[in-house]
Amino acid sequence: MALSRQHLAALLALCAFAMARPAAGANVSITTCRSFCGNITVDYPFALHPGCGHAGFRDLLFCIDRVLMLHLPSGSYRVLDIDYSYRGLTLHDPAMSDCRAIDRSPAGRGNGFAVEPWRAPFLAPDPDNVFLLLGCRASSPLFQGFPDRHLPCRNVSGMGCGDYYGCPAWDDYYDDGRRRPSGAAYGTAVPPECCAVSWGAIRSVNVSRLQCEGYSSAYSLAPVRAAEGAGGWAYGIRVAWQLPEANRGFCGACRATGGVCGHDEGSHADLCLCGDWNSTSNCDSSSDSARSSAAAPGTAAASLFLAVLVSGFSSLSLYGSMANM
Ligand SMILES: *[C@@H]1O[C@H](CO)[C@@H](O)[C@H](O)[C@H]1NC(C)=O
Ligand SMILES: *[C@@H]1O[C@H](CO)[C@@H](O)[C@H](O)[C@H]1NC(C)=O
Ligand SMILES: *[C@@H]1O[C@H](CO)[C@@H](O)[C@H](O)[C@H]1NC(C)=O
Ligand SMILES: *[C@@H]1O[C@H](CO)[C@@H](O)[C@H](O)[C@H]1NC(C)=O
Ligand SMILES: *[C@@H]1O[C@H](CO)[C@@H](O)[C@H](O)[C@H]1NC(C)=O
Q1: pLDDT of 151-166, one tens digit each?
Q2: Last residue of a domain, one of 241, 271, 304
Q3: From the CA of 293, how far away is ligand 2's center (Å)?
Q4: Record keywords: Membrane included (predicted)?
């Protein structure tokens, strides 16, 4: 029996259908990768489980006694907040100075901030975050790398050492009668007692390498109100994160098909977690999947339809059932 035109078309459509939709989507619980630490929600691109989240943020967050900690080569920081809408993390370093207390020692105090080179495209302090480096030596690389310019010290988003010198912390620090630094320090005194820099200017805040005695860090979420001075700043490190452009489409398609975005623990490539199988695209497609066993349902369905087809069902009823799919 020769296949009619309609039969052939139906057969081709069926084959395409069977190949494109073997798993018919997934229904993976969002709690597969979302978790809580204390009162902070840890969700994509961050994760506490291996294989969850984006690979750029792997081995980064740890929940210790309901306290969320972020580990970098420069040290461990407490995570105070994860702002998913503005893609910002707020970190606290207990060893850094603030407006109430100056924390300095000749060997350098505090972690500063340094990320692994491979992680740098994903995580960096916000451009509006100011690092206030304290007591850096004249031989510091901070003052050496700028032969043709003035000192790299400057106000960042309206925050600088001039205002910081107004903090009560300096009263205690200079209560032994030493002269308190003045706001006009930049350019005159070398090295200045305090040097404010943005992350973009130095790309790594390594307090010991910069030969400083300590540091402070502050950020502004809203425009700084001058009247409040440094007492009104938020102290901590505000970090911004970003994902590669291609990840957006990948993750959107993965979620739309009932999957949860993750990554391959070996290759670090994006992976869509579809329940009992993983896909390199989404839970509706198998062409490029990392699946092992789930090919069977689609194939079985195709053979069943094929059997129906050859056993003499009219092409009309077949088209009817196709239309309902
Ligand atoms: C997904 O599974 C949950 C329970 O596991 C169920 O309540 C829900 O209706 C399912 N959703 C779909 C679209 O199948
Ligand atoms: C979490 O709880 C602390 C107090 O334990 C509170 O200061 C903070 O604002 C809370 N954070 C969130 C995101 O609710
Ligand atoms: C899917 O990927 C996740 C994360 O990499 C992994 O933990 C899990 O074992 C994988 N599942 C399968 C079925 O390969
Ligand atoms: C910071 O600098 C010191 C001294 O140069 C170096 O030993 C250390 O590895 C650096 N730390 C980081 C996180 O780069
Ligand atoms: C930095 O800010 C202070 C206080 O607002 C201001 O007095 C000073 O002129 C600013 N310095 C520079 C270099 O803009």
Answers
A1: 788 999 999 999 999 9
A2: 241
A3: 45
A4: yes
